[in-house]
Amino acid sequence: MIIDKILDRKDVDEDSRILVSDYKSDDLHVRITSLYPVDEIPEQLRNGYTYHYTAAAFYREIVRYGAVGHGITAAMDYGTEEDVKRALCDYIDKNEYNPEIKEYINSVNWLEV
Fold this sequence. Notes:
By secondary structure, the chain is mainly alpha-helical. The protein contains five helices and two strands, in the order H-E-E-H-H-H-H. The protein has helices at about 1-15, 55-65, 70-80, 80-95, 100-105; strands spanning about 30, 50. The two termini are about 20 Å apart.
């Protein structure tokens, strides 16, 4: 669900730890060695994946949800940062998710990091 992609980013932003997984669960997870110097990563974690937000990866994930995400991807394609935030907030409202999530949505950039 799209809400999970939003909350995943929020959780990572709020957590000071770097979480590493043995597998690549989606396009928002990349090899840890692509983000950090190899010699700073414990050897047993070097083949792992960690979360890394990019607008392109987020877009690819949203496209997978088909029509549900069309407003969001259209805003990312043709709109401004404010248009993307509005589309994400509309998604929250339409699906009756906790409206407090909109505070987070509006506090970060979705097109540029």
